[in-house]
Structures are given as C-alpha cells and as structure tokens.
Amino acid sequence: SQTIHQWPATLVQPVGSPLSLECTVEGTSNPNLYWYRQAAGRGLQLLFYSVGIGQISSEVPQNLSASRPQDRQFILSSKKLLLSDSGFYLCAWSLLGTGDQPQHFGDGTRLSIL
Amino acid sequence: QKEVEQNSGPLSVPEGAIASLNCTYSDRGSQSFFWYRQYSGKSPELIMFIYSNGDKEDGRFTAQLNKASQYVSLLIRDSQPSDSATYLCAGLSRGSGNTGKLIFGQGTTLQVKP
Description:
The structure holds two protein chains of two kinds. By secondary structure, chain A is an all-beta fold.
C-alpha cells in the first residue's frame, strides 16, 4: 500500500532563516505531488504541484519554492522566511487517473515563525 | 474563478441524529467530488468520493451529487461525538488535465453533542 511521509512534524524558525520541508511517497510510481498551506482556521491553499520529476507549477507568488529531485520526493524551500509563512504545511499525492483519483495527505508540518 | 462553496458553520447536531453537510460548485466541468474529514490539528483524511449523479453509500456516510444543480452533499447517519470535525468538500475539474488539482471549499465545522 502507498504511504506518505512528511517531516518534521513541528518547526519553529526565526524570521529570515531558511526552510526545507521534505515529503516522500512510498508504494507507487510517478505520483502527482502537491504542497498546501493552511493558515489557522482557514482553508487549504495550493502552493505548488508537480506531475513529474523536475516539473513544478506554482499557484501563488511568494517567497517559497519547490523541487522534485526524485520521482517520489517533493521539497518545499525558502531562502528567508517571513512572519506570514507561519502555518500548517501539507504534502499530498495522487495518481493520474480517469477523474476519480483522490489526493492523500501527509501528517503535515506545523511551522511557527518568531 | 472556479469555486467550491461551503457554509463554515458550526453545524451542531445531537448524538444519533443525521448531519447534512452541503457544498455548491461553480464549474460545470467538475467531474468528481471528494469529502475529507479534518480533526483539529490533524491533516485531512478522505471519507468518500463521488462522480456520478445520485447517491453513494459507505457505512454511515452517504454522498449525494446533483450535477444539474451543481450541488454535493454528505449525510452522516447516527452521528457520534467522534464525528465532530471540519469537513472539506473538493472538486476535480475536467479542465485540470493530468494535474489532479482539486478545488477545496473552506470547510464546514460539525459539532455532535452527546
């Protein structure tokens, strides 16, 4: 069966520091991968998605970036964090299908910027 | 702008009652819909998906889709306090191609009172 791993679970970082969050999927090949952010009490905001190695699509302009160096690895990065980057970061995967393929979420990383 | 709308709630129901969660969507090209449950501080977990008009039942849960009215609902029978969570509705547009991108509603908070 497929599993998704996301780490760390919790992170406290000072303003201006760099960020690297990692997500890996096991048990499947060539998944679609997604990064979301959820602010406290708010809905999910899609940040990036990828349909293949090295292919990244950005949904909103921001100081974050994403990379997919391997088929089942997705990384979210920032060179300098802002206070507004605080939130709950979720990685998700799905399979290319005929329209009935759901997304499956990792456990998330709660990021606090001080 | 393609949107999925949900009443934020909270929706409060007594234990044992039927909880009815509703969702409307603006994109007539949407082909599949997904219901996720998100407990406070946790990541979303998939409950059900539906892509044909009508009802789909799974245990205590029934998803309903009416494409003519652009309306999706989730019924929870015999509601339990453990059902208390935020329920997210998401739609997959036919125009999303191979990306698998979902459009999420803001979620409805359900409170089941003992």
